[in-house]
Specification:
The protein has 25 helices and 37 strands. The protein is an alpha+beta fold. It has an eight-stranded mixed beta sheet with strand order 11-12-14-21-18-17-16-19. Strands 26-32-31-30-29-27-28 form a seven-stranded mixed beta sheet, sandwiched between helices. Strands 1, 2, 3, 4, 5 and 6 form a six-stranded antiparallel beta sheet that branches.
Length: 988
């Protein structure tokens, strides 16, 4: 492409289009594109075409854009402006070379020019635009050209063959050619079923324009650059879009599935098109690699082409990282197409001499044998199998299609948990026989593969007796399990010997796997994201050696549709007001310490669960509950030891005078009871609360809850006996920073004014550490001043410790200690039971006795033997495991990490809190403090994908609520900080 300098651009604009303005080079691989701002305020793009492009082709591109604008008026599209002679295509001469150019109205919006992360909904919109464009252009009638086009995927194999020799890295060149040939071979049988039409041909992340959504995500709204318009396979439009996704941060082949589903919703692809899609993606990326290298060689100064090389290679590597057979099956599943036929029916049992039943191990997330973190032991599977075999004394097998908890690992949300084969252990030597006729190849010293004529293979590993099989050669040179290298194999009939499974005392097992992969062995386990594809290609071999056992799943224990069905059942039967986290929540069925595990074996770091203060699955607590429940569980009107011991322990943790305990079931009940005690003691009802607070859902606790995040009408619907003080928010309230010291005196003045007006408060209630605002400390001296004013008016001071108490601050066991005050009533729950429904109100005997004026108090389950044992065990564990000190040390480290992130990411406005009671507040502007609520929600979704569970809090929902179990390790704290850094760096 000839260089076009500024003078030539200015001349073209004025002489051919009558426009004067400043032009800026936008860069391009083939053409020259310039952004033009005219003197009259116009905004355009001047496109100077490569000399090889005929004027008729340029006019056809204009026609196509106009056609698309008519067919789909909501799309933003480049509309061409006619030149001074009325033609859209104008001829100019640069350095003696005739060039053609066009002037388009600039399409507002920005392309996705970098490799930042693309959220599934952004990918889906890209696929939707590809579908809309394909559907609309199907009605455009324009002549085809006989000239082969570089980017027409019908020519892709030839392009790769022609340009690969120019690559300087010969190893890469050979790999690209090899993969392109394999993809092209898959297309040959499909070509007749692929519709041809006019397509855009380059609908990629770079050729859509986007508007930022409320959450900051770039949402495609328009299509630009019709330079590769022409006839081609319709499904190639989707292939091009999918390929462009693969270089983005964190992308895998599974990342394209939202685009495929969205395309299907607009323009459903036929069966051959679905099967052709992934080979076309491979060919597209191969063409990008070879053409990019060629362009750099031919045009050394083309910075655009040079910077694209790395991302083009990343796309290619992603495209070939998964077998084509797997992707074809996965794509068929994504659009609801039937899977191809499975393996042939066995003509002979694989294990004919196996006497008795085969016991099936349960290695799933719900396995009762994997409690107390045993799933993390390296030898867990072998130990369970050995125990089962000792009991069964015949044979033990693992389950194909099972998401194994034993393969899940903290910090690895994409761990390979899905089993694609079956492991078999036997008590006595057991012969293997060919289930059907085929070609037998020895792929390793202890492994054979039996191939069928229709492409299936049975792969057996860990087998003895292979040397004794007549006609079986030694290990095939360069052979590998499951690859279609049956040439030179030994032909065997059904029932022929395949070796022997023998007992092992070192944990080893025979491995049995069916596979349809043609060019590589199948892995034994894979991540869950392409489960449908892998399970189609590697189906269950169990039917070869035993009948289907009723009640024993033959496939994975939790599929995507099954998870969706459970959510639908929840929505039908569980009141919708009881919301769930996340739009598409994972089904979580196990927890261990600070980790949660879903039914697909994905492990999540729980940074949210302030209820389970000890951590999930605590062995001591589990055993204590088990033992107590076997002995006795009744109500607290009976006389037993544990309720007394728990009451004494609680009173002993509080200042003198707070010596009398009520036991209830929740924080809401505790706050409700505390207010009723205050009313009884004071003989009146007025209560002072603070803004942005949440205290519960009962009548009284809800009345003093002022958070509009929990109830948008909270402030307007408070009963007249509730008086709300301004939130003492030192970050974004009316008094900030050092000025926040004014909150205390002003609040005290308000309480004194209430008393003067004849409505002295019966109580003041407040979290002593401002949890609902995001884990924010109250201004120094705030509670001292407010408590003094309340008591002067004859009222009681209630400290709501439901969220902050029990050592979460690290530096103090109770939140009120940080303020240097002693309340009259303390409420506690959540952490008190580590997830068991347990709460308490602690006050003085004098105040407690006033409740008799209201009648008697009784809670059926509050203080039951089991609940009391739970409370005692939690206190023991907090003490014995040093969890308050851990909160101080690990919480301090985590806070330092978060502050370091705040120095690099302007979205972080502040880091609140102390210990493991923290909040990260996101703002769009650090001066105006505009809340970044939508961004916060999107960040939480992205963190979930990265294996971290966290949610928004505060009235503005722009604060990450960070209240993990107190057993959080430094390693886990670093993992969270790294995931947050990744999200803020690469997008959400």
């Amino acid at each position: 492409m000839v260089a076009v300098d500024d003078a030539a651009v200015a001349a073209a604009l004025w002489e051919r289009f009558g426009v004067r303005g400043a032009a800026r080079d936008l860069g391009s691989q083939q053409d020259r594109n310039y952004r033009v701002r005219t003197e009259s305020g116009g905004d355009h793009v001047l496109k100077v075409a490569n000399p090889v492009t005929a004027p008729a082709t340029l006019r056809a591109q204009v026609t196509a854009a106009e056609h698309l604008a008519t067919a789909d008026p909501t799309l933003r599209l480049p509309r061409a402006r006619a030149g001074v002679d009325g033609d859209f295509v104008q001829r100019i001469t640069v350095d003696g070379v005739a060039l053609h150019c066009r002037l388009f109205d600039y399409v507002p919006g920005e392309p996705i020019m970098d490799s930042r992360y693309l959220a599934p909904r952004v990918v889906a919109r890209l696929g939707e635009l590809a579908g809309r464009t394909t559907a609309s252009l199907a009605g455009l009638d324009m002549p085809d050209t006989d000239r082969p086009r570089l980017w027409d995927l019908r020519n892709a194999a030839d392009v790769v063959e022609a340009l690969a020799p120019f690559m300087t890295d010969t190893a890469r060149a050979e790999r690209v050619v090899r993969e392109a040939r394999a993809a092209h071979a898959r297309l040959r049988s499909l070509e007749a079923g692929l519709p041809v039409q006019v397509i855009h041909g380059d609908l990629t992340d770079n050729n859509v324009v986007c508007e930022p959504g409320p959450d900051g995500r770039p949402m495609p709204v328009g299509v630009i650059d019709f330079g590769d318009l022409g006839h081609g396979w319709a499904v190639a439009e989707l292939a091009v879009a999918c390929a462009s996704v693969l270089h983005h941060h964190g992308s895998t082949p599974a990342s394209v599935l939202p685009a495929v589903r969205a395309f299907h919703a607009v323009r459903p692809p036929a069966g051959p098109e679905v099967d052709a899609l992934w080979p076309l993606v491979v060919l597209r990326t191969a063409v990008l690699v070879v053409s990019g290298q060629y362009d750099v060689l031919q045009d050394p100064g083309n910075e655009y082409a040079e910077t694209a090389l790395d991302r083009e290679w990343a796309m290619f590597e992603a495209a070939v990282s998964v077998p084509a057979e797997v992707m074809a099956a996965q794509l068929r599943s994504a659009v609801g197409h039937f899977a191809p036929p499975g393996p042939p029916v066995a003509e002979h049992p694989l294990l004919p001499d196996l006497a008795g039943g085969i016991e099936t191990l349960d290695l799933s997330v719900s396995s009762t044998a994997l409690h107390e973190g045993r799933w993390l032991d390296a030898g867990a599977e072998d130990a369970l199998a050995a125990g089962a075999l000792e009991h069964n004394r015949t044979a033990v097998r693992t389950r194909h299609g099972e998401y194994r908890l034993t393969r899940s690992r903290p910090g690895e949300p994409d761990a390979a948990t899905l089993a694609l084969g079956t492991e078999l252990r036997v008590a006595v030597p057991t012969a293997l026989r060919a289930p059907w006729a085929g070609s037998l190849v020895r792929h390793s010293p202890d492994g054979v593969t039996l191939y069928t004529e229709d492409g299936w293979s049975l792969v057996l590993d860990g087998i003895d007796g292979l040397d004794a099989i007549e006609g079986l050669d030694a290990e095939a040179e360069g052979g590998s399990a499951g690859t279609a290298h049956s040439a030179g194999g030994h032909t065997v009939p059904a029932g022929a010997p395949l070796g022997t499974v023998v007992p092992h005392f070192d944990g080893a097992a025979a491995h049995l796997q069916l596979s349809r992969l043609a060019d590589r062995p199948a892995p034994r386990t894979v991540p869950p994201d392409l489960a449908d594809g892998w399970l189609t290609v590697c189906p269950d071999p169990a039917a070869l050696f035993e009948p289907v056992v009723p009640g024993v799943p033959a496939a994975r224990t939790e599929s995507g549709p099954a998870a969706a069905s459970l959510l639908e059942r929840r929505d039908r039967s569980f009141a919708a007001v009881q919301e769930h986290y996340f739009d598409a929540p994972p089904r979580v069925e196990r927890g261990w310490r600070e980790h949660l595990v879903d039914t697909e074996g994905r492990c999540y770091l729980d940074m949210l669960n302030n209820v389970t203060i000890l951590g999930h699955g605590h062995p001591g607590l589990s055993e204590a509950v088990h033992q107590q429940w076997q002995r006795l569980n009744t109500n607290s009107r009976f006389h037993y030891e544990s309720v007394v011991s728990l009451s004494e322990r609680l009173a002993g943790l509080l200042p003198d005078g707070l010596d009398t305990v009520f036991l209830v079931n929740s924080g809401s009940e505790a706050v409700d009871l505390a207010l009723r005690l205050a009313w009884a003691a004071a003989g009146r009802q007025d209560v002072v609360a603070v803004g942005e607070a949440y205290h519960g859902w009962t009548y009284a606790s809800d009345a003093v809850s002022t958070s509009i995040a929990d109830n948008p009408g909270a402030l307007a619907s408070r009963p007249d006996w509730v008086h709300v003080l301004p939130a003492p928010n030192s970050y974004r309230g009316s008094h900030r920073g050092p000025d926040a010291e004014r909150y205390g005196p002003l609040a005290a003045d308000s309480i004194r004014e209430l008393a003067r007006s004849g409505r002295p408060p019966a109580a003041f209630i407040c979290e002593p550490y401002y949890g609902n605002a995001g884990g924010m400390a109250l201004p120094d001296g705030y509670l001292r001043q407010v408590y003094e004013a309340t008591r002067a008016a004859g009222g009681l001071c209630v400290a709501d410790e439901v969220q902050v108490g029990y050592g979460r601050l690290g530096s103090h066991f109770w939140g009120f200690e940080q303020q240097g005050v002693v309340p009259d009533i303390v409420t506690v729950a959540k952490a008190m039971g580590n997830g068991h429904p347990l709460g308490a109100v602690i006050t003085s005997k004098e105040i407690a006795d006033t409740y008799r004026s209201q009648g008697y108090f009784f809670s059926s389950a509050g203080g039951s033997p089991v609940s009391s044992v739970v409370g005692l065990t939690v206190l023991d564990a907090l003490r014995d495991e040093g969890l308050q000190e851990n909160a101080r040390i690990v919480g301090g480290h985590l806070r330092d990490r978060l502050l370091e992130l705040a120095g690099r990411h302007p979205l972080i406005g502040a880091v609140h809190g102390t210990g493991l009671y923290l909040g990260v507040e996101f703002v769009r502007d650090r001066q105006t403090l505009e809340p970044a609520a939508e961004e916060t929600a999107a960040i939480c979704e992205r963190l979930r994908e990265l294996g971290v569970v966290v949610q928004p809090t505060s009235d503005r929902l722009c604060v990450l609520k960070i209240k993990p179990p107190l057993c959080l390790t430094r390693e886990s704290a670093d993992r969270f900080a790294a995931a947050l850094d990744d999200t803020l760096t690469h997008g959400w």
